[in-house]
Design brief:
Blueprint lengths: L8 H4 L3 H14 L7 H10 L5 H11 L2 H5 L4 H11 L9 H11 L7 H14 L1 H15 L7 H6 L6 H16 L10 H21 L6 H4 L5 H22 L5 H18 L10 H14 L6 H12 L8 H18 L2 H6 L11 H18 L1 H23 L15
Length: 411
């Protein structure tokens, strides 16, 4: 098949960057990437596929004259239905009922034991999991202008919006990694379903935008970008943790992949494309690294700058805010390859860049002890989760997260 311009995997495969990435993954995660041509074809075609049921729900809720005539607010109805269940809905919202009935029915492949283990693994790594997600997966992803276009058009992570939106994403991540958090009606489950509808609303708005170029970028928030984002939450987090000294065995790694596969199921993403084991996870990291164009434009540079500058807004005095800013700058320099840092104009962090290096042997020791001594593992889980809770609470400051489309466009 003919691949879209934005999917450059085959062009990058034989380059120095391609070979360097392959051996880097082998050293870091123990597998040499070898994605199949069938998977590459599926990824290439996914940029022009969307969550069709989610689109129908968005259209039904926000363009339904019956709801308007009855004075029903779409967001309030969605919130009530997600939290109380599909049984409260009548025949005026068949698509919403179908979506919720699907979400309320666990897939046959779901294993609760793996969800529990995934939460334990993520809790053990504490704040470091959040550093890997933000300073590696999110910030490094800004080098690809194709995937960030919805953010650039809506202004979701630009300037003053950056702190709030990253805080909301952090809250979402915390909710879905809470034990039992993906049970119907729970916080993680509700967040995933609400985000699904919010994505559909943004997609509808952008498809009507005169400047949106589907031929070049694919559909807004398409299946390819959604699945890549899911892999960022799972495998890129795992890779980032490995760079800091944490090591997940195959059972733990597969549990984390299982959790995020279920999150994808709830969010209307194509979970059938997602990895289920270490080899498939490495293959996916390779596809993301080589398949995405490194083509940052002004939007990318603004997003990268806004991400780091947002840490100057964390609650606390000016000294603490400056410390947090430099701390994340140091981690970004540790995680992100030099060529990506250069094109994104990520500033260096002299001396402080040594922090992850100095932490590595201590983290490695803690990880080894946790795998051998259950009491240490339980303590690390409690300590790590309290650290994650602190970050979420300090960023939200009691603010409720609705995951509703803000309806903003900056262009």
């Amino acid at each position: 098949m003919t691949y879209p311009d934005r999917f450059v995997f085959l062009q990058q495969l034989s380059t120095w960057r391609g070979r360097k990435t392959a051996w880097g993954l082998k050293l870091l995660l123990g597998r040499y990437p070898a994605p199949s041509r069938a998977l590459l074809d599926q990824v290439a075609s996914s940029y022009h596929r969307s969550d069709e049921l989610g689109d129908r729900v968005a259209e039904e809720l926000f363009s339904n004259p019956q709801l308007r005539e009855r004075g029903i607010h779409p967001h309030q109805l969605l919130k009530k239905a997600v939290e109380e269940g599909s049984d409260i809905l009548d025949d005026t919202t068949p698509a919403l009922r179908e979506m919720l009935q699907q979400a309320e029915t666990p897939p046959l492949w779901l294993e609760q034991e793996k969800l529990t283990l995934a939460c334990e693994v993520i809790h053990r790594s504490g704040r470091f999991a959040m550093y890997a997600l933000g300073d590696f997966a999110l910030l490094g992803g800004y080098a690809n202008s194709d995937i960030i276009k919805p953010l650039a058009f809506t202004g979701a992570l630009n300037g003053n919006s950056s702190f709030d939106r990253v805080s909301e994403t952090t809250s979402f991540w915390f909710d879905v990694t809470t034990p039992g958090g993906l049970e119907p009606g729970s916080a993680g489950y509700s967040s995933a379903v609400k985000v699904r509808v919010m994505h559909a609303l943004v997609r509808q708005s952008l498809l009507k935008h005169p400047q949106w170029n589907s031929e070049q970028w694919g559909l807004p928030i398409n299946q390819g970008d959604a699945v890549a984002t899911n892999v960022a939450f799972s495998m890129m987090m795992i890779a980032g943790l490995a760079m800091l000294g944490w090591r997940l065995n195959d059972r733990e790694l597969e549990a984390v992949l299982h959790l995020w596969r279920y999150v994808a199921y709830l969010m209307g993403d194509d979970w059938t494309l997602l990895p289920v084991n270490r080899q498939q996870g490495v293959d996916w990291l390779y596809i993301i690294a080589l398949g995405s164009r490194v083509n940052p434009d002004q939007d990318c540079l603004e997003l990268a700058h806004s991400y780091l500058e947002a840490f100057r807004e964390v609650p606390g005095n000016r000294f603490y805010q400056s410390y947090v800013y430099w701390f994340h700058r140091a981690y970004a320099n540790w995680f992100i390859p030099a060529d990506i840092r250069r094109v994104l104009s990520i500033p260096k962090a002299p001396l402080l860049s040594l922090l992850p290096v100095l932490q590595f042997p201590f983290i490695r020791l803690l990880d080894v002890l946790a795998h051998r001594i259950p009491r240490v593992d339980r303590w690390l889980q409690r300590f790590g989760r309290s650290g994650q809770q602190f970050i979420v609470s300090s960023r939200l400051q009691g603010r409720d997260v609705t995951f509703a489309d803000k309806g903003t466009m900056v262009r």
